[in-house]
Amino acid sequence: MELRRARKRSVIINLTSLIDVLFLLLIFFIVSTTFVSQPAISLQLPEARNAEAVRQSPIVVYMDESGAVFVNDEPIEPALLEQALINRLADQDEKAVVLKADSRVSHGAVIHVLDLIKGAGVKKLTVATEPEK
User: What percent of the chain has pLDDT over 70?
Assistant: First the structure.
């Protein structure tokens, strides 16, 4: 009598469908995630009790504590600010600018930048503040 040994089947786990599902989940999370870009300029905005929330304009002028001026995160010399704003506002109907000046910047420097902004033909100028705590 001859006994046959049972052959062991080799177990194959098909990972293709699992990889497909993981890939689809990865794509879903990449597409559904929103990214908020914050400027790399550290500012301490002044506080105001009667401040109103306004939709932010695409052109933002920043002044940091040292008095350096930035237009949309790009550093710019104050002497060139007016011409840079004229160039950027040429294709805008609204001609709106938001000024975000650090609360520690001198009043004279802020007034000088405000004058340059108005000289560029800005129709709507918003000065950003923080709500009072």
Answer: 86
